[in-house]
Amino acid sequence: MKTVRIPAEKLTIHKDKTIMDGLDLMTKAGNKKQHNILLVVDDDKRLLGIINDGDIRRAFLRGFTQQSSVIDALKKMPVVAPERFSQEDIIRIMKINKVDNLPIVDEQGRVLYVEGLIEFNSKNEKQVAIVMAGGDGERLRPLTDTIPKSMLEIGAKPLLQIILETLRNYGYRDIIINIRYLGHIIKDYFKDGSDFKININYVQEPKPLGTAGSLGILPDILKPDKPFLVVNGDLLTTLNFHAFLEFHIAANYDFTLCGRPYEIKVPFGYPVINGDVVTEFKEKPTFKHLVNSGIYCMSPEMIEEVPKNEYFDMPDLIRKVISKGKRVGVFPLREKFHEIGRRESYVEAEEFYKKNL
Fold this sequence. Notes:
The protein is of the alpha/beta class. It folds into 2 domains: 2-118, CBS-domain (Roll); 128-356, Spore Coat Polysaccharide Biosynthesis Protein SpsA, Chain A (Alpha-Beta Complex). The protein is 24% helix and 29% strand. The protein contains 8 helices and 20 strands. The chain is globular, with a radius of gyration of 23 Å.
């Protein structure tokens, strides 16, 4: 166990900047755990506090927007250390306080740099992601008459390859791909994954099992023993998958779904009533909701809630685990997202890829 030194300017943000500015800075800083922190400073560059990705998501759930100030998501003053401390002292402080990042400050409270804790995982530990790529792609015909939807090309490479490379860049090197319709094309292209610097296993659906049913036929040897991701094979996103996992673990959720904002505009005025009395009249209102994005993080026990060889969708699983009193959370997705469901969205995917990925 050791630390890596990160320049303060790479993680520093002024107190007057917005939450959106903070998310952009985190994305530019990198996808490692040590980069999942922002140092909020005043005009004199003195440290006011820190925020991480999870703090920002919780601020969204409290009603704050991307244009809100980073102060809205600010944590209380963090644990810091003076420059004179040895690395042994720094690691000891980080262990005692259970922090992964430790700002090193001068006498005026200005951050000189950040020490980020590096933990070396056992070879037996796996970061597992399951990609659902078994669908027929019915709405994309005739494009999918002879090729699976996830193998349609975007930016001169298959959609599924983009998803796998993104997961790999966030540390997910053990991938399980659910296949059914024309699954042999996927297997012939990716094989065992070694050409893409990942390890791939396949689960073949014997029949359509819904958006969650394939979890019920996972062989014991492939079942994850720690929180894992499930990602639909028809989407593109700039989501920080590591931050998503950390959010799930930190909140001790059993099941976390990634919810993206969606607006519904009502083209009419409508009365707000109490009984038969109109208490307010709203003209063409807009309602905002978080809708399912097809990205999930689950604890291993969730697999046992999926029936074997039965059609079972993700909404069925979510309702089931809620009814059993499990902790189900939502991670507000504010990063770029594009789902490929129809021919129009497939055409638009090329521009999304060029602009964002």
